[in-house]
Amino acid sequence: MCELDRFTGCSIIGAAVLIAIGLSWAEMEDRKSWTTCLQLDWLQRLNYSHELHNVTSGDGYQLQLQRLPRLGARPVLLVHGLMGSSLGWLCLGPTKSLAFQLHQRNYDVWLANLRGSSPYGRQHVELTDVMADFWRYSFHEHGAYDLPAIIDHIVALTQREAAEQLNETRAHQVLLIGHSQAFNAFLVLCALQPRFNQHIQLMQGLAPLARLHRQVRFDAAHVRAIMKFVKKRDKAKKFEIFPPGELRKLCNKKRELCEYYTKNLAGSAQSNKKLLEIFSYEHLLQGGSARELRHLQQIWKSGDFISYDYGPIENMQIYHSVEAISYNLSEISVPIILYFGETDAIATPEGVHGIYARMLNSVRGVRRIASSKFNHFDFLVSSDVKTLVNDKLIEAMEKFFAGKLPYIIE
Predict the structure, then answer these.
(1) Sequence-ordered list of residues with C-beta below 8 angstroms from that of 7, at least 6 positions apart, any chain
(2) Rounded to whole angstroms, what are the CA distances from 214 to 189, 253, 302, 304?
(3) DSSP result, 238-277
(4) Separation CA 179–CA 9 (nearest Å)
(5) pLDDT tens readout for residues 154-208
(6) pTM for this one?
(7) Do you find a cis peptide bond into 119, omega within 30 degrees of 0?
(8) Where are the beta strands (DSSP E) in 20-168?
(9) Highest mean pLDDT range out of 25-34, 188-197, 213-222, 267-276?
């Protein structure tokens, strides 16, 4: 079970924190930032120094960037996927979660929160998250606006810190690690703004996505069911998919239905008896825009990695083309290592090898997780994630720095 309790940050520690800071549950629930408070108090109690950085995207989204600092060390940015948040990199606690492991290995760790993530990506200079306009985004906007603002902030700050310490050799680039749809955002970022190829030293994609047609293990009936759900929410003017806590409540009521869709859409887990454990983790898998699902459905239908299709009239206004554009992946020169699980139904072995085939000049390795059953969410919550994933990608990073990274395609 997650060391961060679903409500308090950690059951025993969270209760102690509440008492220590003199707040009742009612008072905490009245505070918009109660989750952040508890997460950071939990980090402090574990003797982890931490910082909060507020970043504003070019189109007005105010995003909280969290940091486990090591001044002068290599900066690593961890980016969550669809319906995730920075908590995904912390929730298994100091002995297993990637953010803690990287910090223990003397990396300067940064945790991204993209627009829509709950509760750290819910602010905007003009909009609120009850407005339809707030939710008009997909991974395109994550890559076109959120990641540029976040990476520019990290590069500028670490350059300034390095200059103060007279050590500028490591401050100009960021190491990037992303789960699932974060890889899509990375592709958009470097395809649309090639200057970021110079700011990212290495990208490691966990369960990465790109093209989906004939490369996923669910069928057209599952896609239709998802889109029917999206249309139903659109009619009810509910533009967020699964607001905080909704998915967990739904799965508590309809466990068999949730197990069915989780297995078919995410894949078999190491322990199918714990297949729904992912939904117990508050702020780990919830929230997101309905447009994110529509964009993925368009990619699945088109068979290509395309921008969001608004229809001929709006496409002409936005893209100066009747059709949505295909992202130019030849613009991407960042070295990339990809990781996949055998039973992942979304980022299948076929799909990940399809990315490799299309990006031969950039991909430096394709690694299979050494487990017969490892699905899309096991990258975050598997009890063996330290040995199966985290240790491997840290080792790959350090071999890359030393110029000794073997070219492995598994």
Answers:
(1) 14, 282
(2) 25, 33, 11, 11
(3) --BSS-TTHHHHHHHH-HHHHHHHHHHHHB--S-GGGGGG
(4) 22
(5) 999 999 888 887 655 555 799 999 999 999 999 999 999 999 999 999 999 999 9
(6) 0.89
(7) yes
(8) 51-56, 61-68, 75-79, 108-111, 123-124
(9) 188-197
Contact 350, 340 (CB under 8 A): no
**Measuring CA to CA, which residue among 280, 276, 315 is closest to residue 298?**
315
Put residue 369 in one of left, alpha, beta given phi > 0 → left and psi -120 to 50 → alpha. beta
Residue 366: Cβ within 10 Å count: 21
What residues form DSSP beta bridges with 63?
A: 55
Give the whole-angstrom CA distance, residue 64 versus residue 279: 23
Candidate from 123-127, 257-261, 299-303 with smallest mean pLDDT: 257-261
Give residue-wise pLDDT tens across range 76-117: 999 999 999 998 998 888 999 999 999 999 999 999 999 999
Quote the CA–CA distance of 70 and 106 in Å, as a whole number: 7
Contacts of 87 (CB under 8 A, 6+ apart): 4, 39, 281, 282, 283, 284
Cα distances from 158 to residues 58, 74, 163, 354, in angstroms, run 21, 9, 8, 35
Specify the 3-state DSSP secondary structure of 329.
helix
pLDDT of residue 251: 85
Mean predicted confidence (pLDDT) in 71-77 = 94
Distances (CA, A) of 87 to 59, 117, 179, 270: 24, 10, 13, 22
| Amino acid letter for position 109 | V
Residue identified by tokens 């603002």 is 149
Cβ distance 71 to 65 under 8 Å?
A: no
Share of the chain above pLDDT 70, in %: 86
DSSP 320: S
Pull the structure tokens for residue 353. 């090898």
Task: Report residue 314 CA to chain centroid gap.
Answer: 29
Residue 387 amino acid letter: T
Residues 6+ apart with CB under 8 A from 24: 18
Q: How far apart are CA 400 and CA 121, in angstroms?
A: 32
| 388 token code pair | 């199966």
